[in-house]
Amino acid sequence: MTGPADRRAGVKRRLAAPRWWRLQRHVPALPIPPILASRWLWMLVAAVIVVMFFVHIPVAARRHPLLAPLGDQFHVGMMAVVMLLVYWRGPLRGRLWLAVAATVVSGALVELVQPYFGRTGQVKDFLLDLVGIGATVGLILWRGHRRQSGLVLMIVTLLSIPAQLYRVPGIVAGAYRMRQTFPLIANFETGLEHWLWDKNSNPNLVFTMVPDGPEGWPTTVLRISGGPPDRWPGIKLRRFPHDWSGFRTLTFDVRVLSSGTDTIPMGLRLEDYPGKRSELYARASFGAWDTWHTERIELSGLAMNDKSRNLDTSDMDLILFYLPRPPRTVVYEIDNVRLMK
User: Fold this and answer.
1) 157/198 same-domain check
2) pTM of this prediction?
């Protein structure tokens, strides 16, 4: 039988026991650097990181041939810092896996909220966040917990960065070259275009020399092959000078291979940067057949898909050539994409 003193002692033990809202204080296995030991400096670094996720990217940076291709990779470093800040201080201090969960959720929330701050939330940015988190977890396990598996995890995650960056030198060289040839956007003669053009809806792309080019002599063209089940097989380009305000017409040469007498309906989609996060774009339709011809798209007065405004040619972001829901496989060629006054 227990007396009053025993019952009081039991109550005190239960009150002192940790609850789900009273997290035990853990010591980080990877010590916090002395420079961040100050709570105020830690809060300052955290505030700067948060602001960087939501502040508008300067126009000069997102248009720069070198900074623009590297811009996405900043997510790796920033989320690695966030992971360490959560692990070193606050209610999740030293609790590795809870800190991981909180950082992953934070990265997802950032991408969901960014459109409300004029930024674009993207899945690829979240995947880069996971790279930064994974590398940091590996570092903590390796250096803090002395586990070799942490070194393996860190190396594997960090190796994904060069796998993503292998195209950057070609993209940078192609972007600088395009600045020199602008308003000629592409004639596919430099050997750099394959770094700049991307697939849309999984077509087959071939940069090939043809003996009967649009000017009547051998030249290199971009050949695209696409068909069902892809709905909009085509090619897209973003790495070009973005100010088209001094030009009225976009021209390009196009033909379809083995089409007989049929005219193949094709589409052109143009996006400006202000409409990027709102899925606003301008669209033009044209036809192609089995002989070369020059297509001219008038830019002035080209309206967005919701009719709310015209295309902002002073801040362009995307060019996309595509086949709208082709009923069969179609092979077409594009050459001499340029702007005209």
Assistant:
1) no
2) 0.72
